[in-house]
Amino acid sequence: MNIAIIGYGKMGKEIEKIALERGHIVSLKITSKNAEDLNPDNLKTIDVAIEFTNPALAVNNINQCVLGNTPVVVGTTGWYNDFENVKSNLLNNNGSLLYATNCSIGVNLFFKLNKQLAQIMNKHQEYKVSMDEIHHTKKLDSPSGTAITLAEGVLENNNQLDAWTEDRKHTLNELPITAHRVENVPGTHQINYASEIDTIEIKHTAHNRKGFAIGAVIAAEFIKDKKGIFTMEDVLF
Q1: Collapsing DSSP states into helix, strand and coil, what is residue 104?
Q2: Ordered strands of the 25-30 beta sheet
Q3: Mean pLDDT by 10 residues, the chain (237 residues)
Q4: Which residues form the catalytic set?
Q5: In sequence order, which ranges of the chain are alpha helices (DSSP H)?
Q6: How many angstroms separate the most distant Cα atoms in the chain?
Q7: Which domains are assigned to the chain?
């Protein structure tokens, strides 16, 4: 494949490394210094774009890929308030999008485990559930998209909860999320079920960016030549 990387920072460079190892070509690299190069003309020869920037840029980047008829994998989070508009534009223009709160294969397996545990624990309401997440200090959205996906997985399977919150003064029907921001931390997410007797915990810890990069490239391989809107669940399960 001929790949465009939109957001050629630390993550973009890791994605490039994995893409080259898997036999692909990276011929377009977009940074803040050449943002104007992301346009339909330059996307004509691109098979798939991989977007890792920030919430303020993601929607425009997706729309440029739609104009260029280029499938795009989006690992940026925090832009989902605009999702319905993006979805409408994609479907009206026969576009292709794979969006993920987290591209890591391990994290997506963790999403599945989280849902299964939530189903089991729903029958044991003496355990109160909470979540802790840690990310690097440059992470702009809080809680992270990964934490929100985990929270939604719990809420879907717990008939005592109907919302998540970052407020420490949470009510009984709210799932509390504590978000920490620490220098040079790829990401840690932990779900806790605590009772007076004991505590049950599941935890995912990223050791580096490689897992995210591998997942993003695998997602790009999946979406090539497809039309529509997909998630990592379509890729892995």
Answers
A1: coil
A2: 25-30, 2-6, 48-51, 72-74, 96-99, 228-230
A3: 96 97 98 96 97 96 97 94 96 96 95 97 96 81 88 96 88 91 86 98 94 97 97 94
A4: 135, 139
A5: 10-21, 40-43, 55-67, 83-92, 105-121, 145-155, 210-223, 232-236
A6: 63
A7: 2-103+210-236 (3.40.50.720), 105-205 (3.30.360.10)
> Strand 174-181 to strand 128-135: parallel, antiparallel, or no bridges (unpaired)?
parallel
Report pLDDT for 140.
63
Q: What distance in Å separates the CA atoms of residue 70 and residue 228, rounded to the nearest whole number?
A: 12
Q: How many CB atoms lie within 10 A of CB 23?
A: 7
Look at strands 163-165 and 188-194 and give their pairing: unpaired
Report which secondary-structure segment, H or E, holds 6.
Answer: strand 2-6
DSSP 154-207: HHTT-TT--EEE--SS--TTEEEEEEEE-TT---EEEEEEE-SS-EEEEEEE--
